């Protein structure tokens, strides 16, 4: 819905500070009024960015089965099915390396593109990557397709939390961002289901990866239709990337589109409140890399990137990408049985994520993190014990796997992404999230790629014991470092904790 001033085509101008500073200033005084919105109007601004998470989750679920299909002499449908552990690791983690590239690119161009256009570009990479992978004639082309798809993941997982956080009403922000995790898990469920249906189909892995293409088209069309983030537009205004009054009117227009008729006459007040806070918090210029490593930026980076790092190095990629193989070790020897068992795992993830969505804005972030990560530590020690001492009791492995998944989805899964979308000041939110997403996928790729070699070198039991020890360290990090952000606006979080 075009307006006369488009912040995605910046025009440098002088910003009248007096005009900003004359606006009322209630937000940091803890007396902000509830934001008026309708549930109906909040659905689409959440739904299409969440498709980026769904496509990421689908890749995880589909890859769990696709790696088994590719290695099958009977069902792979290719002559190069006899892959080494390194080659298979590249198939598994190729999209994660692409996500690293996407995250690095986002650091430089995300604030210029804006959240909305970054998600459109992400959908394009998803689409091209899915088709290249599905039609790959040789191994090298397949890996290239996995990398391209991964660039889409990196951009989507960077922009989607920001777009949702910046457009969602503060009363339901935690629920909506946690619901994005629900979409990731739903994508896994779809991936596991498609994989189980196609696991005994010749060249089934091609269809598994090809399913992503039409979903990417839906995401791209939806994001094209949605308005830009009002907070990003106002950041453009503060940074001199357009004429102030025009961008302010554009932000009001976008906010009205996002909230629907329920917002009434309060859109102007909300926009002016945000402008006032941005002015007081000295948001006038883009942060340099040096500024990211000092003061409140460093504190936010420690909280966000630290939480995301522990989310990955407690073994999450190993459990998700190798779920089917763990089920095989636990007694589901047939590939089809193992992939079907993975469906039940995804269903559990979906249910527990739903629980987290319901309670995150009631119980808060810290209680869910502390309780869930405690369960993760116990489950990892149980998995280590199974592979070391209790190999004749497969119920231990299955129980530990279910406990891990349930606790992860109550804690690290939704709250890790929620915290990084909340904790960074607006001026550095784009770059802060890109660093956090880079840390996420770097650690994810490292753990996913190294699990098989470490399993051969040290034994699966020792690897899971190591993950368990890391989970204990993450509990200490959460207890001493992670703040409670429940019920606060993004501007209040910055004023209170940074």
Automatic annotation (TrEMBL):
Start and end residues of each Major facilitator superfamily (MFS) profile domain: 45-486
Keywords in alphabetical order: Membrane, Sugar transport, Transmembrane, Transmembrane helix, Transport
Tree of life domain: Eukaryota
Main location per the UniProt record: membrane
One MF term in the entry's GO annotations: transmembrane transporter activity
Localization (cell): Membrane
Membrane topology: Multi-pass membrane protein
Bilayer-spanning residue ranges: 86-107, 119-141, 147-165, 177-199, 205-226, 300-323, 343-361, 368-389, 395-420, 432-451, 457-482
The keyword RNA-binding belongs to this UniProt entry's keyword annotation: no
InterPro entries on file: MFS_dom (IPR020846), MFS_sugar_transport-like (IPR005828), MFS_Sugar_Transporter (IPR050820), MFS_trans_sf (IPR036259), Sugar/inositol_transpt (IPR003663), Sugar_transporter_CS (IPR005829)
GO-annotated biological processes: D-glucose transmembrane transport
GO cellular component: cytoplasm; membrane
Similarity comment: Belongs to the major facilitator superfamily. Phosphate:H(+) symporter (TC 2.A.1.9) family. Belongs to the major facilitator superfamily. Sugar transporter (TC 2.A.1.1) family.
NCBIfam families xrefs: SP (TIGR00879)
Protein name: D-xylose-proton symporter-like 2
Native source species: Nicotiana attenuata
């Amino acid at each position: 819905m075009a307006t006369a001033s488009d912040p995605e085509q910046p025009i440098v101008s002088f910003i009248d500070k007096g005009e900003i500073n004359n606006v009322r200033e209630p937000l940091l005084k803890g007396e902000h009024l509830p934001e008026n919105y309708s549930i109906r109007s909040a659905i689409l601004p959440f739904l299409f960015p969440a498709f980026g998470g769904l496509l990421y989750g689908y890749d995880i679920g589909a890859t769990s089965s696709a790696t088994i299909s590719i290695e099958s002499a009977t069902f792979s449908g290719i002559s190069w099915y006899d892959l080494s552990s390194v080659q298979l690791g590249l198939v598994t983690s190729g999209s994660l390396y692409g996500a690293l590239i996407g995250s690095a690119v986002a650091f430089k161009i995300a604030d210029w593109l804006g959240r909305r256009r970054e998600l459109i570009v992400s959908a394009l990479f998803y689409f091209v990557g899915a088709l290249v992978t599905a039609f790959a004639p040789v191994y090298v082309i397949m890996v290239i397709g996995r990398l391209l798809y991964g660039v889409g993941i990196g951009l989507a997982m960077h922009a989607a939390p920001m777009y949702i956080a910046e457009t969602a009403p503060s009363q339901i922000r935690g629920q909506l961002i946690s619901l994005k995790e629900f979409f990731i898990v739903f994508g896994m469920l779809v991936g596991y289901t498609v994989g189980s249906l196609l696991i005994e189909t010749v060249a089934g892995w091609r269809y598994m990866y090809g399913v992503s293409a039409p979903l990417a088209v839906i995401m791209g069309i939806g994001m094209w239709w949605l308005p830009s983030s009002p907070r990003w537009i106002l950041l453009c205004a503060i940074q001199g990337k357009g004429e102030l009054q025009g961008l302010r009117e554009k932000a009001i227009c976008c906010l009205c589109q996002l909230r629907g008729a329920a917002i009434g006459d309060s859109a102007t007040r909300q926009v002016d409140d945000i402008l006032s806070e941005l002015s007081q918090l000295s948001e006038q210029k883009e942060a340099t890399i040096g500024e990211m490593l000092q003061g409140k930026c460093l504190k936010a980076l420690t909280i966000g990137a630290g939480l995301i790092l522990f989310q990955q190095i407690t073994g999450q990629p190993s459990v998700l990408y190798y779920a089917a193989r763990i089920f095989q070790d636990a007694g589901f020897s047939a590939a089809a049985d193992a992939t079907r068992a993975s469906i039940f795992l995804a269903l559990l993830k979906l249910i527990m994520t739903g629980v987290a969505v319901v309670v995150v804005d009631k119980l808060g972030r810290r209680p869910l993190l502390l309780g869930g990560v405690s369960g993760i530590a116990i489950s990892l020690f149980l998995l280590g014990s199974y592979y070391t001492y209790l190999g004749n009791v497969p119920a231990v492995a299955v129980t530990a796997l279910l406990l891990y998944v349930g606790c992860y989805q109550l804690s690290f899964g939704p709250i890790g992404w929620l915290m990084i979308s909340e904790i960074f000041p607006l001026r550095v939110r784009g770059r802060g999230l890109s660093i956090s997403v880079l840390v996420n996928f770097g650690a994810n790729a490292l753990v996913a790629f190294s699990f098989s070699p470490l399993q051969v070198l040290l034994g699966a039991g020792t690897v899971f014991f190591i993950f368990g020890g890391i989970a204990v360290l993450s509990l200490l990090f959460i207890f001493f470092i992670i703040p409670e952000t429940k019920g606060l606006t993004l501007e209040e979080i910055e004023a209170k904790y940074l």
